[in-house]
Amino acid sequence: MGLMTALLVAILTGGGAWLMMRKNLFELLLGLGLFSHGINLFLMSMGGWSATEEVPLPSDHLTPDRYADPVPMALILTAIVIGFGVTAFLIVLASRGYEETRDVNLGEAVGQEGEE
Fold first, then answer.
1. Does any domain span residue 61?
2. pTM, whole model, 2 decimals?
């Protein structure tokens, strides 16, 4: 399970980084989403994520060593909400930029290097 999680984190962050280096605005937004999901999965796996742990509810049959730590999950949830807000803002910003320039290519929108 650990190897599969590490491979999935590598694929998501690598694919997201590759897409963020593209000049197309849609690919940039898609890459940002993939990259943030890869980082969230990495943080969740570093927090001791396990399918055998149970939620920390008081009961007779649970001992403290079987509790799942809720702090990494709360941080991941916060990161997901913040990432959703940033993505929504960037989508609105991209649509406004498209209305102004009628182009989704970032090279022409901000100017090429070496152009004078």
1. no
2. 0.73
